[in-house]
Amino acid sequence: MAREVTQEAFAAAWAADALVVDVREADEYAAGHVPGARLMALRTVPTRCGELPTDRPVFVICTSGNRSRTAADWMNSRGVDAYSVTGGTGTWARAGRPVMAGPQERAA
């Protein structure tokens, strides 16, 4: 079972420049994402997991927390110190935290 992190703990980690991976699809990401989050759609995680560091925590986020739990489970099974963000981007935005729209420059 994926390890989860609260919104408050995630906000503190994000403020300290944590690595955030958004596992939604590109159109969802473009509609609004946590600033600095890297896009790695859930369907690509099995083949791209090796791109992630194993020496620091990775915070995995989606819309509500369902896909991020699946992705974090996969990442953890591959040696990545991954945590699913409880409540996802929806809860993040509803709390008034920063959200950025538009595509990213480089996928993770």
SSE blueprint:
Blueprint: E1 4-5, H1 7-15, E2 19-22, H2 26-31, E3 38-39, H3 45-48, E4 58-61, H4 66-77, E5 82-85, H5 88-94
Protein name: Rhodanese-like domain-containing protein
InterPro entries: GlpE_sulfurtransferase (IPR050229), Rhodanese-like_dom (IPR001763), Rhodanese-like_dom_sf (IPR036873)
Domain Rhodanese: 16-101
Which structural traits does this protein have?
108 residues, Rhodanese-like domain-containing protein, alpha/beta, GlpE_sulfurtransferase, Oxidized Rhodanese, domain 1
Question: How would you describe the overall organization of this protein?
Answer:
Helix 2 (26-31) links the parallel strand 2 (19-22) and strand 3. The mean pLDDT is 93. The protein is globular. A 5-stranded parallel beta sheet has the order 1-5-4-2-3. The protein is of the alpha/beta class. It has helices at residues 7-15, 26-31, 45-48, 66-77, 88-94, and strands spanning 4-5, 19-22, 38-39, 58-61, 82-85. Helices cover 35% and strands 15% of the residues. The chain has one domain (4-94): Oxidized Rhodanese, domain 1.
